[in-house]
Specification:
16 helices
Amino acid sequence: MRTPKPHDRSMNRRSELDLLRVIAIAILLVYHVGMMFNRWDWHLKNPDPLPVLEAPMAVLHRLRMPLLMVIAGAATAIALERRSIRTFAVDRIKRLLVPLLYGMLVIVPPQIYVERLAAGYTGSYFEFYPSVFEFRSYPEGSFGWHHLWFVAYLFVYCMVALPVFYAFATAPGRRVLVWLDRAWARGWVFVLFVPLALARIALRDHPETHALVDDPDTLVHYAVLFVFGHLLGRSKTIWDHVVAWRWRYLAATGVLLAVMAPLDKYPPPLEQIGETAMIWCVILTTLGWGRWFFQRPGGYVPSWLDHAQKLSYPFYIVHQTVIVVLGWGWMQVAQGPWQRFAAVLVSSFLVTWAICELIARVGPLRPLFGMAPSKPTPARVPRVAPSLARVTSRAR
């Protein structure tokens, strides 16, 4: 039995963010499988819907990606602790833009092809694929980023924020960060939901499109979350605060969920205020309990966490394509909706995991999925046989 690895205090922030990222992406897989079975518009729909999924999925829809964006923002702060602004920008191009372009040309097209099949298309994939290079935007064409919209938005945020990151490295910028630390240590971090609410109220008439250029509500909402995540990642006091207040935030989360569920039942601006307060409270709650998990007596970093967090990004990139392709295959098998839901969920998880393990082991694939190049295995120095060592010693 392997002895648990003691938790290093200097890695508290990264360990909790890694754990929350892995959990959030696992939830994302469940959510996207559910999209095949509810009554909402999606790329592939099971003929027998499961309406019971819609209420919990409506809540998850508001919470899953905001948490990931805050984690991504905090990760940029951690990355800038050991990188220059220029090196950071180059790294974001490698880690975000390259996988996005590769995903749009290779990972996303099978989803569009399956969607065409479900609509009556009878050609082979090889007949369909050249249409991708017409570069006509989905849904009229076959070129789009689908679930990789998050990567596109994150890349834009990182590039646009480079001057802000530079400003934080100056003396006035450091003073601003110190002032924020003092404010957050007094519990003011919760009121950050106010800018989120104001943005949602102002842009509530704009539908969510994930198309970047005509998606102001989503673009601003996640930009604010990204900035907040970055500021939290730079903070020296917020992490102790969210641990100390974790029970209060948990209680507030329970109250807000009870008041707001089901969603979309209040008139504006009450709905936007309640929704953003719920989102921000859930984020603070998860950060607090994630931090406490490693700080508690006997807390340690699980041995699997490092490997899981390395696979989490390719898992995100691949998972929806696997769901759609396997979902189409399972739809050709006579099953009840719950049996098919279970089949798609389990098979999608296992196949996505297997693909990610393959990606991690094939050097040329790693950068296409945002993974760092594999480290060369150090050459082993052959040990001299004891008898030969003694003879050599005597000869000297």
